[in-house]
Specification:
5 strands; 76 residues
Length: 76
């Protein structure tokens, strides 16, 4: 199963990677696929890549689902 998880962009690095908050854990992800992304945006992250900028509402809805079923987030 493939899963994309909402994350908040905390910082953007010159090499087009970003530090994101992913369910309370900071990770570095590539952001080449979302050239309009900026600090504070929510992005969907899959396999180390931000693949789409999403709205706050979409992020909150998905994160609520993960909170309801925490076993889905294990290992992220």
């Amino acid at each position: 199963m493939c899963l994309a998880v909402p994350a908040t962009i905390k910082t953007i690095n010159p090499d087009r990677t970003a530090i994101v908050d992913l369910l309370g854990v900071e990770r570095t992800v590539a952001i080449e696929l979302v050239p309009t992304a900026k600090v504070g945006d929510y992005v969907l992250v899959h396999a180390g890549f931000a693949i789409e900028v999403i709205s706050l509402e979409a992020a909150e809805e998905t994160l609520a689902f993960f909170r309801e079923f925490p076993e889905l987030a294990e290992g992220l």
